[in-house]
Amino acid sequence: MLSAEKIARVRNFSFGATGLIGLLYAVLVVFTKRPDPMPWWLPGTVGLLSATLIFSTFSRAGPVPVQQATDELFKRCGDKAHRFGFWSALLLYPFFGFLIATGALCLTLAFPIMGTLIAAAYLLSFVIFSEWPSAE
């Protein structure tokens, strides 16, 4: 039987790996000036694998560790990560709109950057808030 700590570690590892792939994709788009710096299916595939890993971890654990792994701290970190992800996504639009309007960035590069950064903002902030509660 898995403990609540192991469940949380698997969840944070999965969120972190998926968030880092998204962040890496965005950074590579910026530096390579190509909308496909790595295989286009890689971020989605890592996300699906992470979801499968999290689901299988939760399904193998008993009801008590699952309840402990989704306690008030999990909900609080999730709420903070949702807020951070929402405001990050909202602020990306005027920022990239300005870059597109000034010609500093073309539209075909802005969309993959924004799409992967929006997901990475939530995933990585969740990991940061749950692994380092003092970061809140």
Outline the low-pLDDT stretches: none
- How many separate helices? 5
Strand content: under 5%
* Largest sheet report: none
Series of secondary-structure elements, N-terminal to C-terminal: HHHHH
The level of helicity is over 70%
Spatial shape: elongated
Q: Got a strand count?
A: 0
Mean pLDDT: 94
- What separation lies between the terminal Cα atoms? 31 Å
Q: How would you describe what is shown here?
A:
With 136 residues, the chain is mostly helical. The protein has helices at 4-32, 42-60, 63-69, 72-101, 107-131. Helix 1 (4-32) packs antiparallel against helix 5 (107-131) and helix 4 (72-101) runs antiparallel to helix 5. The two termini are 31 Å apart. The mean pLDDT is 94.
